[in-house]
Amino acid sequence: RTVNFKNTVVIMTSNIGSQYLMEGISADGSISENARELVMNELQMSFRPEFLNRLDETVMFKPLTMDEIIRIIDLILDRTRSKLAEQNITLEISDAAKKRIARDSYSPVYGARPVKRYVQKNVETQIARVIMRGEIAEGGVITIDSDDEKLTFRVKEMARV
Fold first, then answer.
1. How far are the Cα atoms of 54, 64, 71, 143, 147 from residue 101, in angstroms, in the given order?
2. What residues contact residue 137 under an 8 Å CB cut-off, 6+ apart?
3. This prediction's pTM
């Protein structure tokens, strides 16, 4: 089957040269010319000229800020909340817990990709264990907070009417 790509925009991402961007970015988010050159050199060493020549444009993005990572965490947790809402369970998470997740999972080099894996392993898996052990029933609330070292989970059963 033939596909028409005539009116299509294809966006590809890579972390190639991200270490140079980390070092070459100013407080206002602009990327230094030296950092751009270093990234482009690494890109040219990583991909064949025939491939790079087919790209219309190469765009360099500044690293995510902590506030942006927190917003990504909120989006990921919204999906978790929706799944729990189907079982009439509420999820509450403190700002301290979100900051802990961000600190423990975000990497300027790898971007936000590890954040989702961290939430799956350290939040969703723990919640699943609470549910499977029968520690929470319909109408219950799971509260996630953070102490100095780790995330903490507290379960509160709602009073039955």
1. 39, 15, 12, 14, 12
2. 157
3. 0.73
What is the helix, strand, coil percentage profile of the chain, to 5?
A: 45, 10, 40
Domains of the chain: 1-63 (no CATH), 66-156 (1.10.8.60)
Q: Is 56 exposed, middle or buried (0-12, 13-18, 19+ CB in 10 A)?
A: exposed
Residue 22: which residues within 8 A CB-CB, separation 6 or more?
63, 108, 109
Residue whose entry in the numeric block shows the structure tokens 């929470």: 136
Distance CA 73, CA 17 (A): 25
Q: Which residues pair with 152 in a beta bridge?
A: 145
User: Among residues of the chain, what percentage have pLDDT more than 70?
Assistant: 97
d(CA 81, CA 75): 10
Beta bridge partners of 154: 143
| Beta bridge mates, 31 | 25
Instruction: State the average pLDDT over residues 13-30.
Output: 82
**Burial class of residue 72 (count of CB atoms within 10 Å of its CB; 0-12, 13-18, 19+):** buried
